[in-house]
Amino acid sequence: TKPYNPVVLNAIVQSKIERYRELRRAMERDSLTGLYNHRTSKDKLATAIQQARSAQQALAVAMIDIDHFKKINDGYGHPMGDQVIRSLSWFLSQRLRKTDIIGRYGGEEFLVVLPAADTPRAVEVLDRIRHDFGQIKHPFNETWCTATLSAGVTQLHETDDAQALIKQADEALYSAKRAGRNRIVSWE
Fold this sequence. Notes:
single chain
């Protein structure tokens, strides 16, 4: 209403902007890890595919899963399971490039998109992460909890879309698990 106080109006507008930003973040991000959520990860992958095609660049996609995660939850409790998930999300964020896309796909699964990387390069990068993540000791009472990860990797081909790449990476992930876990497998 008129007359209005510009200081009050500014405070109201700033408050609404902040609420909008918080709502948008809640819609795009996973609440436990701060990474992109399932839906946003898939949307970002679709955009990355378009960009890779227009730039005629490679694009690698990986599905990562924490090995024997149910045993961690059952043996150490859900807070430790959450800590292991947060630890992997932080580790991926620190080790991957800012241009890479990292999302929590669901539960203990992560989707990683590596623009301008082919399968061998992605396997090399993720294998170092796999090795180093397996060395982390999460304190629990008077002992430690350790975790390993497995991953399946694929790369963009002419006719692939986001759904096909996710399916290929997931199939490679299950091959890694069948082969004994704690390994990176590329899709053939």
